[in-house]
Amino acid sequence: MPTAELTHADAVTRLGYALSDSTRTRVLLALRESPAYPSDLADALGVSRQVMSNQLACLRGCGLVTATPDGRRTWYRLADPRLATALNGLLDLTLAVDPTCCGDDCTCTR
């Protein structure tokens, strides 16, 4: 069975999906600094190890991070160093944000 090619739109959609969750976003931002073990990421981000495991599995599935065995542990890093550059570019953007938008009563994402 032939595999479908990933289009540019598909790749950006995957990144958008990953960034739509604050924990996944924080993981990607942490990994742009250096590779890390899941337990260290969980501690640094204040989430359970199960939550971290689920988020890393999602990011792996999106092709954004890779896992490298290290003895009995596994460390994670960004799948491509250019992703760190892209994340830095997003952080450099200056956005005009309506402070009333995207709160609990927001209707712009529904």
From TrEMBL:
A GO MF term: cadmium ion sensor activity
Pfam families, per the entry: HTH_5 (PF01022)
An individual GO BP term: response to cadmium ion
PROSITE patterns: HTH_ARSR_2
Domain HTH arsR-type: 4-98
Matching CDD domains: HTH_ARSR (cd00090)
Domain of life the protein comes from: Bacteria
PANTHER family hit by this protein: HTH-TYPE TRANSCRIPTIONAL REGULATOR CMTR, TRANSCRIPTIONAL REGULATOR-RELATED
Descriptive protein name: Transcriptional regulator
Organism: Litorihabitans aurantiacus
Lineage, opening ranks: Bacteria, Bacillati, Actinomycetota, Actinomycetes, Micrococcales
